[in-house]
Every structure is written in C-alpha cells, then in structure tokens.
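### Sample
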Amino acid sequence: MYVLAKTHFLFEKGNMSIPHDIMISISGIRGKIPGSFTPQLAGALAYAFAQTLPPGPIVVSRDSRASGGVLKKAVIDALANAGRTVLDADLSTLPTTQFAVVSYKAAGGIDITASHNPIEWNGLKLFGPDGIYIHKKALDALVTDVTQNDQPVVKTTDNKDIITDIHTNAEKRHRESLRPMIIPGKRLRIAVDAVNGAGSYIIPHFLDECGCDVISLATDPTQPFPHTPEPTPKNLVWTKRALKNIAYDLCIVVDPDADRLLFIDEKGRLLSEEMTLPLVLLELCVRGDTGPIVVNMSTSRMIEDIARAHVCVVYRAAVGELNIIDMMKKHRAFFGGEGNGGVIYPRHHYGRDSLIGILNVINCMRRTNKPLSRLADELPHYDMMKEKVTIGDRGALPHIYTSLINAFPQGTVNEIDGLRIDFDNAWVHIRPSNTEPCMRIIAEARSVKKVSHLMKSVHAVVDVYV
C-alpha cells in the first residue's frame, strides 16, 4: 500500500503522465495500487476536477479497500489547495454518496472506489452537483488538463478546518428517504454478504428499520474481502458455504460500493444478477408505477416480457450508468438499470442503488407471502452466458464485428454499443469492457443448449482474432 512521503508536497508544478493501464470510462478512473494508480495521480485529478465545479463543498467518500485512506488524504489535500471545503462521508456506499451530493446541495462528489474490481484496484468516481457521473467528454478534459497543462504546487496540510464529517448523517438521510416505501409485514431473516465493503453498515441498519432480522456474513469493513468482489457465481462459493446450516429467507450480496445487487434464495440457489431488475420492476408495476423503462444492451429479455404484460415500453442504451440515465431523462422513464444488478429508480434519485432493490424485493415477498424461490421461478425463463475474453489489440474489434455480422445474416444488428445481434428467441452482445482490459460476450436464449450453441458459434469467429 502507498504511504504519503513525509514531505511538504503532494505533487509539484508540472504536468503528469497517466500510465496506459489506467482504465478511463464513464464509470470513472481506476487502476492498480500499488502500481499505476498513485496518490499523486488521484490528487492531480481531484484538483483538476475542483476547477470545473460550481462554488460549494465537495462530498468525498471511499469503500473499504486498504488503499482508500491514503487516497482520500491525497484527494482532500488537493481539494483544500483548490480552495474547497469537504463534506467527508468516509466509508459510504456509492448511492449514499450520490444522494448526499444532492441532499447537502454540494458542488459535486468524489467516491474513492474500484467498484467490483479485485482488491488491488482502486480509483475515483466523479459526480456533478446533480449526483450523476460526469460525462466522458468532461472526464477526457480532466485527463487532458492533468497530462498536458502545468499543475500548481499542491501541499499536504492539516485540513481539519475545511472538513465537515457527514458520514453518520449522510447514511441516515439515505435510509430515512426510503422509509415511506416500506411495507410492514413478516419479519424476514436476511443474510448479508457486503463483501466487508461500503455496504457493511448501512444495509444491516436499513434491514433493521424494515423489520427484518440480520444474519451478518461479511459486514466488517476492517477485514479484507472474503472473496473476489464481483458478485458472480464463481466468486460466491464462499457465500454459499457460509450459508450452510443457517435458516434464512434470502441472502443479499452486493459489491464493494454497493451499487450492484443479487440474491440467494432460501434454498441456497444463487439467482442470476439478471433477475434483480425483473423482480424489482414487477413489484413497482404491481404497485402502480408505469411508463417507459430503460436498460442496457446486455440486459435480459425478461424486462421486455414483464414490461409488455404491464403495458410499458422498453428502450435500450449503451452499457454504463450514465448512458442509462441520459436515456431515462430523454424518455422520462420511471425505472431503469443494468442487468448486472444495478437498479435505478429516479423518483428517489438518479443512480444505481442496492437499497431500493432490497426494499422492493422485501415488499414483494411480504405482499405476496411467497418465498423468494417461488417469485424467481415465476419470472420468464431464459438462460444466459457471460464471458470475458482478453484482447490485446482493441483495433481488432471492428474486424470481429464485421465477421460476426457476416456469420449471422439472419440476425438484426445493433451497433449502439459494440455489436448486438438479435434473433427470434435469442441474442448476443459483444463489446469492450469499460472497467477491465477485456472484451465481454453475453448471450441469451430460451435454453442452456441453445445459448451454448450460440456462444460456440460466436467463439468460432472471435477466437480467430484473440
């Protein structure tokens, strides 16, 4: 882990190079630490970001990674040198940070997190005064400023005078804002795997306010992640093992910044993260919500099936929370999100929020008096496969797309985000990752056999280039 040198300077006058392995996308900036993502880089980016915001304080938060403390110090030093005051939310979920920016009428926000990436990664997520990610063009301008323009001398200082601690109150405001949506009912026993991340405190507190009993599996942010943090089946063997011999109604799993959510039912069955959005949408529709819905290109067709039954229209956007939100605003959508378990309900706030997903699944179980396993079984059935393929040269992607279009002439082509090809009862989506140095391939069909055949056919084309 990096430790700031006992020096007067965080970084000195001059420009700064950004290593090629730093990932820059609408989901923020992230890299490995120790490695290419240094406190000096974090400070330089924070200082440049402060110059772009309107007057006012800036919310700063982090997840539970060991590198978060030194990065937060670097960020706050930079903001202090930029003449800013700081609202310190410290260990807070990403949605709590976004909600706090709006709730406290801040000029913007910085969350120090690498989200679902492994523990050796960290980064910055940047938000404007609306609590929404800044656009890629603005992010690129920050990078240009840091790399091409001389930066002023930034000194490390005792910044107590410019910091206001809002951690407890920010979490409280977030929870309290959701209380009116709680449906009283059966006292459910709910296990929580917060991967010892930023959701370790707020989720158990919120469940208690919902009238549930909490079984803590990984809710100690002073401890390391018990497993690779991305909530996928291969990473949750530890969670399923921890649930053995425990009686519970459902288990909640979130990533380190708690903007992604999935469930394990009372039988120990890991529900696909693709089921999170349909379960929440179904509850909202039954309770009277209606209107347009926006999801990304990689999200299951279950959404269309449920929307059709409730006379709602579905629009699809490129992958990335900001892309979803932009289209939601355009169509005045009441609901949206991503198939990775990211729920967006703008009547509360624009941002992926696991608490909203948790609340609506609890409400659905209480309203119907059905176990989670039955609710999941009642959803439209599809089988999906998700794969990551390492690709050394992203310049090969256009050739891969052209070859796939030629290989599947019967499909309907969409090139909004990489390449998506739709068939009558199946689809496949191929795109470069925004957050990792790889290409993602997602395919869905009505059966395991059909989706496996589709994925095999895709690999017959893709593997020539990788």
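The chain has 14 helices and 23 strands. This sample (Phosphoglucosamine mutase) is used throughout the tutorial notebook.
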